[in-house]
Design brief:
elongated; 12 helices; five-stranded parallel beta sheet; about 280 residues; Rossmann fold; 2 domains; alpha/beta
């Protein structure tokens, strides 16, 4: 039987509104949030068509939450699997987009590339750029290297650097909801040469072209498109806000700006949103 420590007991007093909880790794965050979910299931005034939404970062954590919540529920003689939903942030975004894909211009059968496939697409786009710009290493960093460093970077290392730089730029652009054409306009407005950003934009264009060819989106697109879907249809947003009366967020310190935006929109005016994470 779960016997909460004093700090955990404070969290379990929650009845509504917004609450932030800072807890160090190993302090029982998952168990505390699981116990809170069960408390809200029994005492939180949920209607038959409402759920508690538990959001975490990785699939293994989803399994852990589902197991612990199920164990708590069984001890109370209830049936597990009803009245709550455990999702990763990307899984939640997929639920939102998959329910109304037309809102964001996607076909009902759109595909999602996993991290491995996305990495391969990025590497292909970066390799194509390096081949089309054979002297790029000289332009960017050649004059700052010794001869031995230059020969090493001139080979595989330079492609890896291009991949890493462009991957970071693409991730940031998508978190800011900047498509390649938006980034292009921003670079043009800046009015000064930005060679690294220019390189990143060209690889970004090629990367998105590869996704479009497959009729697919990546995980970062899912987050961006979920926000767009919520912004496109107020009635759809209201329906989801009603469905998920409480939001319990695990590992909140790892949420990106756009991921946080999704949860804030879903929390609505009630803001029944618990954010738990590392200090």
């Amino acid at each position: 039987m779960f016997k909460p420590r004093p700090k955990q007991a404070e969290v379990l007093k929650y009845t509504g509104g917004k609450m932030g909880v800072s807890a160090v790794p190993g302090s029982g965050k998952t168990r505390t949030l699981s116990a809170l979910a069960v408390k809200l299931l029994t005492d939180g005034g949920l209607k038959d068509d409402q759920e508690i939404l538990i959001v975490t970062v990785v699939n293994s954590a989803v399994d852990n939450f589902a197991r612990q919540i199920g164990d708590f529920i069984k001890t109370q003689g209830m049936l597990p699997g009803f009245g709550y939903r455990v999702r990763t942030l990307h899984g939640l975004a997929n639920d939102i987009v998959r329910e109304r894909p037309a809102l964001v211009g996607l076909d009902e059968n759109f595909q999602i590339v996993d991290e491995r496939e996305a990495d391969e697409l990025l590497q292909d786009a970066a390799l194509a750029w390096v081949k089309n710009n054979p002297n790029s290493v000289d332009y960017y960093i050649g004059k700052h290297l010794t001869e031995s460093e230059y020969m090493r970077v001139r080979g595989r290392d330079w492609q890896n650097e291009v991949t890493a730089i462009c991957g970071a730029l693409i991730k940031m652009a998508k978190d800011l909801q900047l498509l390649p054409e938006d980034l292009r306009k921003a670079l043009d407005r800046f009015g000064l040469p930005l060679p690294l950003a220019e390189m990143g934009w060209q690889v970004y264009v090629a990367y998105q072209r590869g996704l479009a060819y497959r009729g697919a989106v990546d995980f970062q697109d899912l987050i961006r498109l979920a926000v767009k879907a919520l912004e496109q249809d107020d009635r759809y947003l209201s329906r989801l806000q009603y469905r998920w009366k409480y939001i319990l967020e695990d590992e909140a310190q790892d949420s990106s700006q756009l991921q946080e935006t999704i949860l804030r929109k879903l929390a609505g005016s009630a803001q029944n949103w618990v954010r738990m994470g590392d200090p």
